[in-house]
Specification:
Shape: elongated
Structural class: mainly alpha
Number of domains: 1
Largest sheet: none
Length: 99
C-alpha cells in the first residue's frame, strides 16, 4: 500500500475545512460589514496562501513520485496553517483591539 494515500485525504480535507471555508466565511463577514474593515486587509494575504495550498494539494494528489507527493502535500497543509493564523488570528486580535 502506498503510504501517501492517507496523506492525500488529510491534505484535501485540510484545504477544504481549514482553508476554503474559513476564507469564505471571513469574506462574507467583511462583505456584510459585520467585522472591522481592517480584517479585509488580512484577506489580501490569506486568500493567496489558501489558493497556493489548493494548487499544491492538487499537484500532490495527482503526482506519482511518493517523495515529491509527500513534500507537496505537507507544504499544502503548512500553507493552510499559515493562512489560518493570518486570517483567523488576525481577525481575533483586531476584534479584541477594537472592543
Amino acid at each position: 500500500m502506498n503510504a501517501t494515500v492517507p496523506l492525500r485525504w488529510y491534505a484535501g480535507l485540510a484545504v477544504v475545512f481549514f482553508g476554503l471555508l474559513p476564507a469564505g466565511m471571513l469574506t462574507l463577514l467583511v462583505a456584510r460589514g459585520d467585522t472591522p474593515g481592517q480584517v479585509g486587509l488580512l484577506l489580501v494575504g490569506g486568500i493567496p496562501l489558501v489558493l497556493a495550498a489548493l494548487v499544491f494539494a492538487v499537484r500532490g494528489m495527482t503526482g506519482s513520485d511518493p517523495e515529491l507527493t509527500s513534500r507537496r502535500l505537507h507544504l499544502s497543509m503548512a500553507l493552510v496553517a499559515g493562512a489560518d493564523v493570518l486570517m483567523l488570528g488576525g481577525n481575533a486580535l483586531i476584534r479584541m483591539a477594537s472592543a
